[in-house]
Amino acid sequence: MTTSVRQARPAQPTLEMVAEVAGVSRATVSRVVNGSTKVSPEIVAAVTKAIGELNYVPNRAARSLASRQTEAVALVVPEDMTRFFGDPYFAAVVQGITRRLDQSDYTLNLLVASSDPRHKTLRYLRTGNVDGALIISHHTGDDFVAELETTMPVVFGGRPSNADDLDAYFVDVDNAAGAETGTQRLLDIGRRRIGSIAGAGDMPAGIDRLTGFARTLERAGLPTDAVELADFTAAGGAAATRRLLERYPDLDGLFVASDLMATGAVDVLREFGRSVPGDVAIVGFDDSPAATSGPVALTTVSQPSEEMGYAMADVLLRRLAGDESMPHRTLMPTRLVLRDSA
Amino acid sequence: MTTSVRQARPAQPTLEMVAEVAGVSRATVSRVVNGSTKVSPEIVAAVTKAIGELNYVPNRAARSLASRQTEAVALVVPEDMTRFFGDPYFAAVVQGITRRLDQSDYTLNLLVASSDPRHKTLRYLRTGNVDGALIISHHTGDDFVAELETTMPVVFGGRPSNADDLDAYFVDVDNAAGAETGTQRLLDIGRRRIGSIAGAGDMPAGIDRLTGFARTLERAGLPTDAVELADFTAAGGAAATRRLLERYPDLDGLFVASDLMATGAVDVLREFGRSVPGDVAIVGFDDSPAATSGPVALTTVSQPSEEMGYAMADVLLRRLAGDESMPHRTLMPTRLVLRDSA
DNA sequence: TTGTAGGCGTTATCAT
DNA sequence: ATGATAACGCCTACAA
Where is the HTH lacI-type domain (chains A, B) (predicted)? Predict the structure, then answer.
């Protein structure tokens, strides 16, 4: 009958014990553990051996207390997790983040930006619980994070929307360029009455993709009025498609700012008796699993989601390591993936 | 020119400083911070005031070092995050978990069970980095966690598949009962050639739902052979539906073990010229956003995903607080939500 | 009820 | 290059 499992944790070996086994001082063991160069090879060997024998693992709390660093970074995600994670794009980003972090000793603290961000979340971050922060998918108005950069290194996923965040670090794709490529594809296959379902206007990615779309059509001397906004969900994309179809029944091409929204568009189009890509060709954005989960495989502008997450973590880790030479913006390439819809 | 942001963290007030301001000893401050009853009201007031003035927040590392507890719990999710989070059900569960945790001082560490679980993940967990663990969506074969319960409190989301995990703590819904309700609905509206798309056979939820389905049909004296397995994704559901349709062209009812798979089923059905619910009525499971994101709103067996996450965290927290009176299994209710598909 | 003092496991500053 | 020896901020007997 163990009364309380909690206290029963078997005593872990300590630096001290390793030192004794290796016949050196704690300080020396600490040095080899932390990879100091100023230790003679023989001693390194002896210590390493002792560590192996005892199966020693540094105590995080003690290390953190003494070094004043936590070896933890926060992942701040928006409050509405269902919608956030509902988009495979984000899931992939997070996976990339963890992949990079797994190569380090850093831990990932999941922080859901509560509706009361000024208090709990911010306080937690400021209070020294983490060494740095990764912030994903923040909309305009999430300015509460602006000041954070003064406290600790922060890296954004996607260009921050705040105009004053000029010196924010972020990794993103060139959304405008990607949108141009996607829209151009529609032109290339002969479509001339092209519309777009754009992402919410409060997110830079949405704005930039719309810009690229419009720019391409203008260049071709075509009108850019067939645009509807949606919220990056399948349902939103479906609704926007209905509105668009009502206004422009002669639509023959559609550039959609996300694959998830595009799946909604496909549903509605077929519902209205339009074939894809026969009547209406569609180009999506993301190349997420959603692109191939629907009835018609989507031609889409692929962005390296997982790699973006990896890059985010990588930039943060480098900054934490003292490397301030990182460029503020890391732009990843997009590429057009041809499937059935366009 | 700040050379290094990292070290610049402003010195937080310490217990010692609070003690001085309040005119008491550190020990006393510690007592009121930790809510000891044996402190006189006046002193509590004085200390509380000092804490407020200094804006004192306990240092996690120090507390953890002294108390041998981390105030952190791990959230272990399966390696394939894209598929994991791609299912809105899980996103909701995680949201529920964070909601409960937000009411406590516990932090959530996101752990992706790597393909090498025996090493990194397990080592991390065992090495005292967290006080407890929440484990979600583990398949058969994830037995690496079985031994974990001997080290620290663990709570599973969904019944663990391991037969020997008799005394594991978990929160789940009564999947079999839910499936019965859903299948019964199909009978009630007059369907007689009913099939099912079941979840992967290596997950208890999938197995139990299939059991409920079969039981109901047997009770009605109907055959239970029209079953195809899928992997809980939309694409998987679509493929399974194709196979099913091929074998049983006369299908008029379909019980699908998840809404996500059901959306795939709807797509295929319409593609084959079958109307929903006209030709084939469909009942899903989960009542996730996927249920209403497609072309036809799904009648579905609703499970309280968010509440389940909340309950998981709640059980864990109670156990961490020393309350071992919690029941091992927490079963949440399902209910049938009537929409358009059946 | 309150205070004293030792210890938690590291890191970091000095000497040596 | 290595070793004492302080911190680091808090908890917790034990004493008063």
Answer: 13-67
Tens digits of per-residue pLDDT, A63-90? 999 999 999 999 998 777 777 766 778 8
Q: Say if CB A213 and CB A179 are below 8 A apart.
A: yes
Residues 6+ apart with CB under 8 A from B165: B146
Q: State which residue of chain A sits closest to B62, comparing Cα positions.
A: A65
Which among A110, A169, A162, A166 is positioned nearest to A139, based on CA atoms? A162
Three-state DSSP state, A197: strand
- Order the strands of the A227-229 sheet from edge to edge: A227-229, A194-198, A253-256, A281-286, A299-302, A335-337
Of the candidates A55, A149, A18, the one whose C-alpha atom is nearest the C-alpha of residue B6 is A149
- C-alpha B51/C-alpha B19 separation (Å) is 9
B-proximal residues of A, 4-33, CB under 8 Å: 4-7, 9, 12
> What are the tens digits of pLDDT across the range A5-55?
344 455 789 999 999 999 999 999 999 999 888 888 999 999 999 999 999
Q: Which of B137, B149, B85 is nearest to B113 (CA)?
A: B137
Nearest residue in chain A measured CA to CA from B272? A295
CA distance A266 to A241: 9
- Residue type for position B15: L
Let me know: does A257 contact A285? Beta carbons within 8 Å.
yes
**Which bases of chain D come closer than 7 Å to a protein CB?**
1-5, 7-13
